[in-house]
Amino acid sequence: MARIIVVTSGKGGVGKTTTSASISTGLAKRGHKTVVIDFDVGLRNLDLIMNCERRVVYDFVNVIQGEATLNQALIRDKRVDTLYILPASQTREKEALTKDGVEKVINELSERFDYIVCDSPAGIEHGALMALYYADEAIVVTNPEVSSVRDSDRILGILQSKSRRAEMGQDPVKEHLLLSRYNPDRVQRGEMLSVADVEEILAIPLLGVIPESQVVLNASNQGLPVILEEDSDAGQAYEDAVARLLGEEREHRFMSSQKKGFFSRMFKGG
Amino acid sequence: MSETAVPGVKQCFQLKSASVSMTSLELYFFDNDEFETTLRDKISQAPGFFKDIPLIISLERYEGLSSELDFFKIIGTCRRHNIHVIGVRGGNDDQRRLARGASLALLPGGNQRDREIDTGPAADTPAAEAPDSPTPAKIINQPVRSGQQVYAPDGDLIVLAPVQAGAEVLAAGNVHVYGPLRGRALAGIHGAEHARVFCQSLEAELVSIAGHYKISEDLQDNGWKTAVQIQLREDLLVVTPLEKA
Q1: Are B145 and A156 within 8 A, CB to CB?
Q2: Strands, E assignment, B90-233
């Protein structure tokens, strides 16, 4: 059985698709058979970030409605050969994602893959609910600002009450906090919430902190998951996050502007 | 002079939502003579309590025939004893039509268990009823997240985790939050004025006890972000630190 991981946030523009692309690429790079599904029907972006937009023939909705088989719709990544992408439909209504249809596709994928990463649309409407419904784990992407934290809190509540695990009374969805667009300088100036602030409010374990970086934007525009920019701090931060997701212990990095002062600041309680 | 919604036009009244606690009479069957005897008996046990109170007739356990329900007789009998029947709760369509005919208000059926009003040792209570065991508190172990609502309709609510901004916790009795209280907490929602709110860190958007409330802005000056209890004293919410209580 595959582990089903939803990447979600409530708020838009915080880095869900960037995170889905990098986490799924990172998992696949380690040899795990991974598929990443774009649930954002009508506003599909994942194919752009994964640089496969010119190879989309059939999509998720086609498969649900029986117009194509999974094999026809799955796109194999050109860089990492254990990674597949199931693109969203750009033309259909999001209601085309029915609970039964999604379940059928996920069950079928479950037999072939180790990891299923679900890239959720923003909001708490149907598409977002479908993306999280079958999840075993959730990566909640949050920016260090109050509105994003509030929306993440909302989505955590929904994970606890509306996921399949919640409805069936099974163990709750395992929650991970991924703080993205983190800028230690701005935190120091009091313009952003600190990691400690966000952890304190949301009270879920921290999977990683992704520093705000021009590299992320450049990589997106080139259709490259930023985790493949192995020399960049954002790429390494995602690499760490994937390692932690797989149970490895990794020290958190990139949380301070001066790498030297990192420990002194952490232990002063700043 | 207070400002009204439309400048220059002073409205005659304003509608506000209110929640009051009321006595309901749970009717099992209706017989005029027996009704009056029972009523007189109940009143004699606590004459002051029943003087001029509003009363709801609850039909949820009514077992008699609908045709036997004579609301005019019920209202008349009650009025002779200074009790004002104001409406009915529950009941089927026929019964509710009869009630409307008697100019009574129609309330939706409540599925919460009403506490029996103890009018002291009743001499001729037919059978010794089981003592009212205290309603167990509702205990929540997980954070109450933004957009979630937790409701303890009968007793206390105990939350062993944060109540987040945008979340709401409500209880008929006390509300305990053993974590930061960042959302809304409403205690004594059926009108229990003795109910209190306890929290490890007061960061609430709103705190209410028996309908009296304070919003975040008015809570900042006293005990903000500390462990406090909040109680109602002479219609005012009073915040006191827990360690000095």
Answers
A1: yes
A2: 105-107, 138-140, 149-152, 157-159, 168-171, 175-181, 184-187, 197-202, 206-209, 212-215, 228-233
